């Protein structure tokens, strides 16, 4: 990938990276995964200090442009705003985000760049069950700690997604005839029990949201799926914080368990991760009884209609079959006993 690098900014970022003045650096670039609008590039090379030391480096450049996400218009710039805040001080050695060595917003406030620590480790579907469980445990600890301590930095954060984002997104999907009508139509190819599962959420949504809204309000990552989780040297690193904000206890687990996760182990990971998450939260805060969790309902609220949409827009029978298989696994989750 060819990108134009600002030499002065590169040297500034590397000076912060090494805590030494950098006066020169060669570069090689590799495109990494990019998320919704971000262009993410790994830059490697050798930096030269003012006293002629040669230091190898790896640093990530993330460039994001302005766009508008439904019901969350400022999410495009949220990572920039969070890195400009003192949120970094809330993380622990066991769970953290990548360090930022330089951040800049353009004059028009339509594009920003972040120069970030390169995080390597186990991620995606390579994560093991133990790693899933540790991610859930450490997330619970982090959220419980913040919930109890209420650090001043949280009160000063103005650009966070709102607590009603999950509910409003679900209602938006439910109002879309394409997906709503399909599962109720004679043309629907889903097994009857899958259709009924989705319709039951609609019919009981008021009561479900009443239960959810009694849960603790916590700082959620809101994109806590396997590609954004890195297990490195026994620690959890999280990337891509652009959808983060206030939400209810358990929302992030919906993504961990169901968002393009390991279908063959989805039920097992649900059984292991929900108790681990509640255990982590309870290490700092008074957690609601485990049996009152709403993770199953959150999975369907967040992903149910999205999977119907994916099915209807699938380019192949294999892609359609994958959506049905995921919905079947979610159906199996409902009656499965939790471990621990």
Question: How does this structure look, described?
Answer:
By secondary structure, the chain is α+β, with helices and mostly antiparallel strands. It has two domains: 7-117, Phosphorylase Kinase, domain 1 (2-Layer Sandwich); 125-334, Alpha-Beta Complex (Aminoglycoside 3'-phosphotransferase, Chain: A, domain 2), CATH 3.90.1200.10. The chain has twelve helices and twelve strands. It has helices at residues 7-18, 78-84, 129-149, 152-156, 165-174, 177-182, 192-203, 205-212, 251-258, 266-282, 295-312, 317-334, and strands spanning 22-25, 28-31, 38-49, 54-65, 95-96, 100-105, 111-117, 122-123, 217-220, 229-232, 235-238, 245-248. Strands 1, 2, 3, 4, 6 and 7 form a six-stranded antiparallel β-sheet that branches. A four-stranded mixed β-sheet has the order 5-11-10-8, with helices on one face. A two-stranded antiparallel sheet has the order 9-12. A hairpin with a 2-residue loop joins strand 10 and strand 11 (235-238). Helix 10 (266-282) crosses helix 12 (317-334). It comes from Paenibacillus barcinonensis.
